[in-house]
Amino acid sequence: MKVNGTMINYYFHCKRQCWLFANRINLEDNSEDVHIGRVLHELKYNGNENAEVSIENIKVDKITNDYLVEIKKSDADVEAAKWQTLLYLKILKEKGINRKGKIEFIEKNKQNKKVITLELTGEEENKLNELENEIIEFVSSDKLPDPIYKPKCKKCAFYEYCFI
């Protein structure tokens, strides 16, 4: 199993969601927020040849000469978006493509910046290797983690699965 960007994002956002997704229990097709995110991606990069590039098991939103760009609907979970983007930078680096990262938030609610730039450091690369191993071990477990209710759960595609 290879860890992809969605898995690492969910691991930071909600470990239960990560486990469900990795074990092929996907309820996101029913999520209005997921549909809105897809539409925003399409509108932002409609007709752009550098938009949504697939490499191995990841899909990056855009690659320019300087940046790998990740588009997020909101800044609700910056840490999850950061590690997802860093994973993409690491995978590109392994392919001989060195870029800086840029996360663009369509809606900014929790922070002042609409764009965050990142560079993959050796320390972050080591942390990513640890995280990938940790995630593989976690999602390979037969035990589904118990739900932990937080206000953000109400907007999650898995809300009914976890709490109803």
Your description of this structure?
The protein has 164 residues and is of the alpha+beta class. Helices cover 44% and strands 19% of the residues. It is built from six helices and five strands, in the order H-H-H-E-E-E-H-E-E-H-H. It has helices at residues 5-13, 15-22, 32-45, 78-94, 122-140, 159-163, and strands spanning 51-55, 58-63, 67-74, 100-107, 115-118. Strands 1-2-3-4-5 form a five-stranded mixed sheet. A hairpin with a 7-residue loop joins strand 4 (100-107) and strand 5. The radius of gyration is 16 Å and the shape is globular. The chain starts with a helix and ends with a helix.
Query: How many helical elements?
Result: 6
Read across the widest sheet, the strand sequence of neighbours is: 1-2-3-4-5
> Percent helix among the residues?
40-55%
Strand content: 15-25%
Features of the shown structure:
alpha+beta; single chain; globular; 5 strands; 164 residues; 44% helix
